[in-house]
Amino acid sequence: MKKKILVTGGSGFIGTNLIDFYKDSSEILNIDIVKPRNKAHLVYWEKVDILELKNLTKKIEEFSPDIIFHMAARTDLEGKTLQAYEANTTGVKNIISAIENVENLEKIIFASSRLVCEIGYEPKDEFDYKPSTIYGESKIIGEKIVRESTALQADWILVRPTSLWGPWFEIPYKNFFTSIKKKLYFHPKGKEIYKKFGFVLNSVYILDAFLKDSSLHSKTVYLSDFKALEVGHWANLISQDFHHKNTKQLPYFLLKAIAVLGDLAKKGGYKNPPLTTFRLNNLVTPMDFNTLEVQNIVGELPFTLRQATKITCTWLKEH
């Protein structure tokens, strides 16, 4: 008998890839306020706002899921107040309330974010926070709502996606690929930058492995590939696919000057300049997360960096 899998936010990046993974083996419902990115997924979609508790509860109880991936959230960094990120706080409360009478629910996976801590900060444990954005603050509140709930009866896990990329992605990591495609990316000369990013299909594989394991119940883990990539090497893999040659490099002080110009352009109304000070700082800051516990459960991931890059470049060419 097919499992019933509910994906909140299934029209988003991770949600779209989850639906692709499960659509042939499971009964799927995507509840989201926007249409699916993949038009083939319209058949699984119902327009539901997680902030409207009554309708949310009705839809969830009617579907009666065995598994829930709660991916719905506001994820941009443009909001100025916590109220702007109500989907990440009240939305979590509503999901917990809406599943109270779903007796067959086996597991629920809540998506948080690595931005509960600023880039470069290594938390002492899962309760150690250092956000630098209002979005990050909203995700901290969401985590605390989950942990403090007395209503959750099913097995649950909190996952913090790091920087995920791959088919169906959007800003900001799609920009990295498109900048290289347009020959607008220049790597800081002589800098090796190591980051634990995650290819989305590897992340889906990890999430699926969690469904078969109960040892992480009530824990918080990072969702990423297990081996850090070196950004310059990764950029070259992308450039090789598009142009059959490596990316060019520029001295760091020149990139800083270009980033300042990007800041000025953004203040002047240009929505998405190729480089800003914020992006440059993010680029050059090393990023590592402890994924050993997850790695011990999951084992080897299915896609290497080279394979994942090829898949993503092919997807970009087709879309």
TrEMBL record:
Keyword check for Transmembrane helix: no
PANTHER family noted in UniProt: ADP-L-GLYCERO-D-MANNO-HEPTOSE-6-EPIMERASE, NUCLEOSIDE-DIPHOSPHATE-SUGAR EPIMERASE
Protein name: NDP-sugar dehydratase or epimerase
Domain NAD-dependent epimerase/dehydratase: 5-168
UniProt entry keywords in alphabetical sequence: Carbohydrate metabolism, NADP
Native source species: Polaribacter pacificus
Claim: NADP is one of the keywords in the record: yes
A Pfam family: Epimerase
Cross-referenced SUPFAM superfamilies: NAD(P)-binding Rossmann-fold domains
